[in-house]
Design goal:
There is one protein chain. The protein is 32% helix and 19% strand. With 113 residues, it is an alpha+beta fold. The protein has a single domain, classed as GIY-YIG endonuclease (3-Layer(aba) Sandwich). Strands 1-4-2-3 form a four-stranded antiparallel β-sheet. The longest helix is centred in the middle third of the chain and has 15 residues, at 65-79. It is globular and about 40 Å long.
């Protein structure tokens, strides 16, 4: 993972058209939002970050969309971002189960499906 970087310099650090995951922050010290993009990480950071008042970001490229979403799930559980409305659910089928032992957020999200 690279960062934190100022969101105003996104264009200097993130290449367009690549899959990856990101963390957005208002203060540069805590993870406020975690996300991923299967095909354009720069556009996803721009789309979520700028209008929401985030000032900093971290990111990592991924070799595939699946890897980007897996990284998003890992970071969601590691950093407990305050602004994510629920656990990431990209690509989850009916039989999907969270691999993090005791994850109450994922258990709750799964029960609502």
């Amino acid at each position: 993972m690279s960062g934190p970087f100022s969101l105003r310099y996104l264009h200097l650090f993130v290449k367009k058209g690549l899959a990856g995951a990101f963390i957005l922050s208002k203060n540069g010290a805590s993870a406020d939002f975690v996300g991923a993009s299967p095909d354009d990480l720069a556009a996803a950071i721009e789309r979520v970050g700028r209008p929401s008042g985030y000032r900093y970001f971290w990111f990592a490229y991924a070799a595939s969309a699946e890897q980007a979403h897996e990284l998003e799930r890992i970071w969601y559980h590691r950093y407990h971002p305050s602004d994510n409305p629920s656990p990431p659910s990209h690509g989850h089928g009916a039989g999907w189960a969270c691999t993090i032992p005791g994850c109450a957020a994922c258990a709750l999200a799964q029960s609502k499906r």
